[in-house]
Amino acid sequence: MEHRALGRSGVDVSRIILGCGNFGGIGSSPAFFGKGETEAEAHALLDAAWEAGITTYDTADAYGGGRSESYLGSWLRRRGRAVRDRIVLTTKTFNPMSAGADSGLAPERIHRQIASSLDRLGVDAVDLYLVHAMDSDTPVAETIGAFEELVAAGTIRAYGGSNVDAAWLEEALRVGSPAWVQNSHSLLEREDEGGVLPLVAREGLGYTPFSPLAGGWLTGKYRRGEPPPAGSRMTLRPEPYRHLEDERVFDALEAFEDLARERGTTPAALAIAWLLAHPHVTAVVIGPRRPDHLHPALSALELDLSPPEHEQLAALFT
Question: pTM surpassing 0.90?
Fold first, then answer.
């Protein structure tokens, strides 16, 4: 597994990052806490990722209401110090830990939340810490000041922003030293090309896109005129993807599937390969539900897209 420096963080990450957002829940939604992967299922997925060479693991305090961090922590204890010393841990804060609990990026909350994250993970420090969303109630300078304090204390090595826009990033860069951005980005979601990615390039930041398959839309599972498969994202949380139910999107997806077939690969692998071939993408965060779901990402590492091929695929969805 290839590793790359994450911007100016001083941390090297594996080019595929295991997203642990479905451990004990479905992301940060309190309605799904206690669902998602069980602890045993999470451990099996972590084992498979480790054996595949993935050394970077991404979680958040609110994933599964804390269960994701706890499951990752119990796996680390089982695996022992030899594994812990070789992996990179990323966690995040912003969302409430339970229905009705507080949220946000006020400094006192950041300090409280990182302490609880370290306890669940069973570690003294994490390598990377992320703002999980922007907080309109807290000045960016106050949030960044708290993150800088954590760096100075050795609690975290570097920090960045997830689900942030260019204006937030500009302000964070003015008052501090964020090292990277982790936003949703794929062939079907390209908003960062207009603002965030130029800033990433200008400032030498890392960029680790998540949702590379656009909620499963780039896997070929959603077909024109057919109901979505049972248990798929479009049956659980369809709202973010309703705009993709468009004839032009289906046209592009069918052409994309043909190109994948011509290359002897799958649409999912080709979609991840497109991200990996982007000059400003450091690594890609994937969120598999089972060990066999790792296969497209691992296959993507073997696909070498030329710049013209990269542009051809982008043009399909433009």
Answer: yes
